[in-house]
Amino acid sequence: MKYKKILVCDDDQGILEMLELLLEDDGYEVVLEPNSVNALKTIEREAPDLILLDIWMPMISGDQILRSLRDNRKTSSTPVLMYSASTDGKSIAESCGADSYISKPFDLTVLLDKIEELLQA
């Protein structure tokens, strides 16, 4: 069985570690990218099956990263689940083409369900 690869891009080390534990425990291969500046290169190199992307990051925000992904033929169809603690996170995620959105702090069961849905779509 091929394990699905999920790339998590977030500048918060605590969230990266928590998601890594949660996702590996659920049987996923996990790639972490704490630096939004490197995100596009890492995504192209790793070719993940799904991307978890924080909206608010220093330097390059999640919505800028997602717009670039959608403009790139190689990554345009990769499912992206965005998340944020911001009240307008959902509208930002929708406006830049996210496949799904979850607000922080997230319910881990809901998060895993959304991941499963996106990977099966």
Automatic annotation (TrEMBL):
A Pfam family matched in the record: Response_reg
Record keywords, A-Z: DNA-binding, Phosphoprotein
Top-rank taxon: Bacteria
Xref: PROSITE patterns: RESPONSE_REGULATORY (PS50110)
Phosphoprotein in keyword set: yes
InterPro entries linked to this entry: Bact_response_regulator (IPR050595), CheY-like_superfamily (IPR011006), Sig_transdc_resp-reg_receiver (IPR001789)
Any single biological process term in GO: phosphorelay signal transduction system
Residue stretches making up the Response regulatory domain: 5-119
SMART domains, per the entry: REC (SM00448)
Modified residues (4-aspartylphosphate): 54
GO molecular function, one term: DNA binding
Keyword Phosphoprotein annotated: yes
Name used for this protein in its record: DNA-binding response OmpR family regulator
Originating species: Pedobacter zeae
